């Protein structure tokens, strides 16, 4: 049992520094990628406000497969290049989408989602998974969220695959 205390009432860079420290502590000494993804999705769900889904899709073969997450049941398989997640995985580029309804091919797992942030997870120079965050608020994710989540994932990526 971990009992982190991370305030959202502080500048984004400090918030993400604290969140990344907690993420590092959670994966420290643990090599099971599924267990680590489960704890990281729970950590994000607990401390990042205004999310309706937070979790991972793993790249298995030539498609993304649903991994550990928090939120409503979601679509299980996503082809590379499809939707926001498949685009992030295929291009190895963060996708920060202010309006999911304006994103060509967006896959609506939860009709409540309005904006989305997807961060590729890379190990040994290859995409092995994506972190997917959905929000019911339009334009929820800022540039600070993008850099903060990218830094968090980079810090723990070796423990996610
Ligand atoms: N919206 C994603 C699909 C995954 S769910 O949001 C959990 C997409 O377009 O790839």
Structural write-up:
The structure is a single chain. By secondary structure, the chain is an alpha+beta fold. The model has no long low-confidence stretch (mean pLDDT 97). Bound molecules: methionine sulfoxide (SME).
Throw out a few tags for this protein.
4 helices; 6-stranded antiparallel β-sheet; binds methionine sulfoxide; single chain; Beta-Lactamase; alpha+beta; 161 residues; 26% strand
Short description:
The chain is of the alpha+beta class and 161 residues long. It has helices spanning 12-27, 33-47, 83-91, 143-156, and strands at residues 53-60, 63-71, 77-79, 95-97, 115-123, 126-135. It has a single domain (12-159), classed as Beta-Lactamase, CATH 3.30.450.40.
Query: How many runs of DSSP E, i.e. beta strands?
Result: 6
The strands making up the biggest β-sheet line up spatially as 3-2-1-6-5-4
Q: Could you spell the SSE succession in H and E letters?
A: HHEEEHEEEH
Flag low-confidence runs: none
The CATH superfamily turns out to be: GAF domain
Ligands, deduplicated? methionine sulfoxide
Largest sheet: 6 strands, antiparallel
What is the typical, i.e. mean, pLDDT? 97
Q: What portion of the residues fall into strands of 2 or more residues?
A: 25-35%
Number of domains: 1
What is the share of helical residues? 25-40%
Q: Return Rg in Å.
A: 14 Å
**Can you count the helices?**
4
- End-to-end separation in angstroms reads 23 Å
CATH architecture assignment name:
2-Layer Sandwich
* CATH topology name: Beta-Lactamase
Overall shape: globular
Look at the structure and give the CATH class.
Answer: Alpha Beta
